[in-house]
Design goal:
Number of strands: 6
Largest sheet: 2 strands, antiparallel
GO cellular component, one term: nuclear pore
Keywords: mRNA transport, Nuclear pore complex, Nucleus, Protein transport, Translocation, Transport
Strand content: under 5%
Distance between the termini: 145 Å
Radius of gyration: 69 Å
Pfam family, one: GLE1
Order of helices and strands: HHHHHHEHHHHHHHEHEEHHHHHEEH
InterPro entries: GLE1, GLE1-like_sf
Subcellular location: Nucleus, Nuclear pore complex
Shape: elongated
Number of helices: 20
């Protein structure tokens, strides 16, 4: 018999080398299972040697026929050769029972399954084709299962790699956080170091600037002192040159007079009389100024007013009054030609504050104003004295800060009079004019008739709208003027000569206690003076100043207590507290300006 060429009934889509997805593989497996379960079991005959390549399959069912049945079978099978028959009987037919369900009970098989002829003749090509298809299905299933297993293993490996990657990523993130934290701590430490270094540099720069400013101030002070010395030397030279010229002029005049006396005695007598008259005029002015006060005292005594003052103090007051009267015209404040300088000086003094820079700038402005060429020196000094002392009227004297302002005025007065020495006489004359206790001097009315409006004007009462001010207001201004006077006296600046310093204050205190009686006004003036200058006087005179205080305690206070009125009791308490609390050992408030002593900051 001939053989036919058959092809494997396997769809080409089951090529295992194609790139399938997991869903495609599962769908194909389900289709194969459905096909296998739907097909009926088909036993197969034993393939020939050429089909199986001479290899017997394991677990094949082989059926053999007895010799008794060979004849009957041979009759039925016609046309089959003996060799083929033997081969069929000897090898048997192979079949599978995959589609049948087996059971342990024999009763289920009896009579329920149709008899199946195992040796039924089948088409050989079809059997081979089915067998090959079966083998191909099994092979494809095995390959698919192996690929599924490989994919599962790869998937698990990928999961493990992902978990490991996440773990490494988390560990890396934690390490980065730790590194960032360390860097942050490091940067904060660096920032703190840089900030500390910057602050140190700023402080060092500030200290250097302060040293430069202090050095500049000292240089300016030294330069001003050098200028002052140079000016003094020039003035001394001019004075000597003037004296020499005057001496030469006198010699020439004497020679001329001697020559003229030879000519005529009458002409010589006239010339001598003229010279004597000129000399006497100068001396008469001084005698007249000294005698004016004594005549005034005698007039006051005749009018019922007694003057308590030392002769030296009265002479000094008369001399200053004569200086102002002779050098300065009356009502200079009303003259238009001096109004400009009056406003300029008043503006500078109105800006005065108890600070170092302010005091220095105000003093410089006033010195320039007094050195002006357009305004005569005496008039400028008189305007300055009037404006600096009238600050008592423009400021609140009851305020606690008035003491600070008084010390600032004292420094300004000293700085100005150091450069313009003539200004001190005008200052003292103005002090004596506005307050008689700066002389020191006291006027006492001997009777009730003497206590008239003129008497109160003499002792310093001011009029407002035709009415005299109250005694309380008068005593307030007395205290303010004496404080300002004492602040000027106690002011000291290193390297600057004071024309009216602590020595004059010591003299004033002695004259005050020796000549003036114990009254309410004198007690207020004495307490104000000690409050401002007591510390400086005790520092300089020590035990001698304590003796002065003992005199006040033993003599002045008992005499004051005997008068016994309300104002006197307050004055007594103030002096008693000053002595008992030893306030003279404490630096007065306001002596330091902007935390630094002016004398140290400007001229050290």
């Amino acid at each position: 018999m001939g053989f036919e060429r058959v092809e494997l009934r396997c769809p080409r889509a089951l090529d295992p080398h194609q790139s399938w997805t997991l869903g495609d593989v599962l769908a194909e497996l389900d289709a194969l299972d459905a096909t296998r379960h739907a097909a009926p079991p088909t036993p197969l005959k034993q393939p020939p040697d050429w089909a199986s390549n001479g290899s017997a399959r394991e677990k094949a069912f082989v059926m053999r026929v007895d010799d008794d049945e060979d004849d009957t079978e041979d009759e039925d099978v016609d046309g089959i050769s003996d060799g083929e028959s033997r081969a069929l009987v000897a090898r048997g037919a192979r079949f599978f029972c995959n589609g049948l369900e087996s059971s342990d009970s024999e009763d289920e098989l009896d009579g329920q399954v149709e008899p199946y002829h195992l040796m039924e003749k089948r088409n050989l090509e079809k059997s081979i084709l089915l067998e090959l298809e079966r083998e191909h299905h099994l092979k494809v299933q095995e390959e698919v299962r192996s690929k599924l297993a490989a994919l599962e293993v790869g998937h698990q490996n990928e999961i493990q790699r992902t978990i490991s990657a996440f773990a490494r990523l988390q560990k890396y993130a934690e390490s980065r956080k730790e590194i960032d934290r360390r860097l942050d701590v490091h940067f904060q430490r660096r920032i703190a170091e840089v900030l500390d270094k910057h602050l140190s540099m700023v402080q060092r720069d500030h200290e250097q600037k302060s040293q430069i400013v202090e050095r500049r101030i000292r240089d300016d002070a030294a330069l001003e002192e050098a200028k002052r010395k140079e000016q003094a030397i020039k003035e001394e030279k001019l004075r000597q040159e003037r004296a020499r010229q005057e001496a030469e002029a006198r010699q020439k005049e004497a020679a001329k007079l001697a020559a003229e006396t030879r000519k005529t005695a009458f002409e010589a007598a006239q010339k001598e009389a003229a010279e004597k008259e000129a000399a006497e005029k100068e001396a008469a002015k001084l005698r007249e100024a000294a005698a004016s006060q004594s005549s005034q005292n005698s007039q006051n005594n005749n009018a019922g007013i007694k003057v308590f003052a030392d002769k030296y103090a009265l002479e000094a007051e008369s001399r200053r009054r004569a200086l102002v009267h002779n050098q300065v015209p009356e009502n200079i404040h009303l003259r238009k030609e001096f109004a400009k300088y009056d406003r300029q000086i008043a503006k500078s003094i109105s800006k005065l504050m108890p600070t170092t820079d302010n005091v220095r700038s105000r003093a410089s402005e006033l010195i320039k104003a007094l050195d002006g060429q357009d305004c005569p020196r005496p008039i400028a000094c008189c305007l300055f004295a009037n404006k600096i002392i009238s600050i008592v009227k423009s400021r609140n004297t009851k305020d606690k800060t008035f003491g600070n302002l008084a010390f600032a005025c004292g420094y300004v007065m000293l700085l100005v009079t150091n450069q313009v020495p003539d200004a001190m006489d005008y200052l003292l004359a103005e002090f004596n004019r506005v307050c008689i206790y700066t002389v020191p001097k006291h006027l006492h009315a001997l009777n009730a008739q003497a206590r008239n409006r003129d008497y109160y004007r003499l002792i310093g009462y001011q009029e407002e709208n035709g009415q005299l001010e109250s005694t309380e207001s008068y005593l307030t201004y007395v205290v303010a003027y004496v404080k300002l006077y004492a602040a000027m006296i106690q002011t000291e600046i290193k390297g600057v000569r004071h024309p009216h310093g602590l020595a004059e204050g010591w003299k004033w205190l002695a004259l005050f206690l020796n000549a003036l009686p114990a009254t309410t006004a004198t007690a207020c003036a004495l307490h104000a003076f000690l409050k401002m200058a007591g510390f400086a006087l005790h520092k300089k005179y020590g035990s001698q100043f304590l003796k002065i205080l003992d005199v006040i305690s033993r003599c002045f206070l008992p005499a004051l207590k005997d008068q016994g009125n309300k104002m006197q009791s307050e004055a007594v308490n103030n002096l008693q507290n000053y002595l008992n609390d030893k306030i003279y050992l404490q630096e007065p408030e306001g002596q330091y300006l902007v935390q630094q002593l002016l004398s140290k900051e400007l001229f050290m």
